[in-house]
Specification:
It is a single chain. By secondary structure, this protein is mostly beta strands. About 15% of the residues lie in helices and about 45% in strands. The strands form 2 sheets. It has an 8-stranded antiparallel barrel. The chain has a two-stranded antiparallel sheet with strand order 1-2. The longest helix is centred in the N-terminal third of the chain and has 12 residues.
């Protein structure tokens, strides 16, 4: 039994995920894995550095820490999806954001995907949910891309954070933030549409709740 317990702890302590070529800048040379640290109820500085976490919270973003998050599985829509703060002083109107959370595990791992319109899609890598009671924060890396006739117009790698309070109707006090890490585009026009690297933006839902669709 003791041997089995030690093996179980080791399995939980280090979780290794295989990732695609776009994310090789996160990896050691010659490596093809990301090592996820054992969750401690906080966003690791290896995912979002301390100074960027401080910038988010100083501009009104709430990070709900803890190792007992609520179950957040479901499909939700932030509508209207409003820009609250942009470190690059960007201003614009934005399309509604649809978010899918699924396969939440007891240790906090979860699968996340998002969509704007029918052309912009994001898929998570190493998503994790933390929090306490009904309050949560989900963080992950994402590969975000826009398509036209099955061709990629641009793609970027972002760190994404979503916070709120779970209710039967949806995510109350909904907040969404991203930090742009890398970007690529098929031409200069699409490249110029993307935020500068290492800038961040914070969004909220205009009626303070991301509605649960499913």
């Amino acid at each position: 039994m003791a041997k089995f317990a030690r093996q179980s702890i080791l399995k939980f302590a280090v979780i290794v995920l295989t990732v695609g070529p776009l994310f090789t800048s996160c990896l050691k040379e010659g490596d093809d894995t990301i090592v996820i640290p054992l969750p401690d109820g906080k966003i690791p500085y290896s995912v979002i550095p301390k100074e960027l976490q401080d910038s988010l919270t100083n501009n009104g973003f709430i990070i709900n820490e803890g190792i007992t998050p609520p179950n957040i599985e479901g499909i939700y829509q932030a509508s209207p999806f409003n820009l609250h703060y942009a470190s690059d002083d960007y201003e614009n109107l934005f399309y509604n954001l649809t978010m899918t959370f699924r396969e939440q595990k007891r240790r906090g791992m979860i699968t996340y995907a998002e969509r704007q319109r029918d052309t912009v899609e994001g898929a998570s890598i190493a998503a994790q949910v933390i929090g306490h009671d009904s309050c949560f924060t989900m963080y992950c890396y994402q590969n975000l891309a826009e398509y036209s006739n099955y061709q990629i117009l641009w793609n970027c790698r972002i760190a994404t954070v979503i916070s709120g309070t779970m209710t039967p109707a949806g995510i109350k006090n909904y907040q969404y933030a991203y930090i742009l890490l890398d970007k690529e585009a098929t031409n200069n026009f699409y490249y110029s549409m993307l935020a500068d690297t290492n800038t961040f933006r914070i969004y909220t839902d205009g009626d303070n709740i991301a509605t649960k669709l499913l």
